[in-house]
Amino acid sequence: PADGYNFYYGTTAALVITIYTLKSMPYDPVKDFVPVGMIGMSPFLIAANPHAPIKTVAELIAMAKAEPGKVSMATEGQKTFGGMIGEMLQVTAGARFLHVPYSGVGPGIQDTIAGRTQITVQAAAAAMRFVTSGQLRAIAVSGSGRLPELPDVPTISATYPGFEYVGWHALVAPTGTPRDIVQRVNRDMDQILKDPEIVKRLADLGPITEGAGTPEALGQFLGAERTRWAKLVKDVGIRPE
Predict the structure, then answer these.
(1) pTM to 2 decimals?
(2) Is the pLDDT confidence value at 205 over 90?
(3) How far is CA 115 from CA 68, 74, 75, 141, in A?
């Protein structure tokens, strides 16, 4: 019920991507929810086996163009966030990788470490410890800015302007939830998300927060994200299943 006691912790996949990758769902991400507040952004990394001759996006694309289909890319699958970033990079750069899908994050990372695949596209939170330990080499970040933990690793957009895709986490409520309750929860969220301890704890888990923003700002963001992902899915040729 839309009584202010029920909320949904939504992700990019649940609130946007599934609209374009599934033919039918038991809920409507657009009509069934009202925005409450942003929780945080989760950028992705392109990371390479440290022994592969790939240190930059430019080198990666040059190798993929020189030997189409020879550079192997591990992801969780074509219709996952990382998989679609990898597919979009190929379209943007006019290159072709060998896309190797795995069921889960761990196997793709481990096979890239072992050299069975040359690159992997994963959430920064999942790949970070392998990068800091030297088991993987970070090539680029999918977001709009560099990560504090990896100040020397550039963004993909530094090579291909406008190429910015990040995962995110947001709180929404059932449509019909009283506006005063939405505003109150948003206010409390914003206060909590600006607490330095919470900021650090979230960053350790992955999401980078700058506060909840406003419900209106989140609504505009979700609309823009739907437009961006609709284009991406069309450009990479993904068909709903």
Answers:
(1) 0.86
(2) no
(3) 18, 11, 14, 21
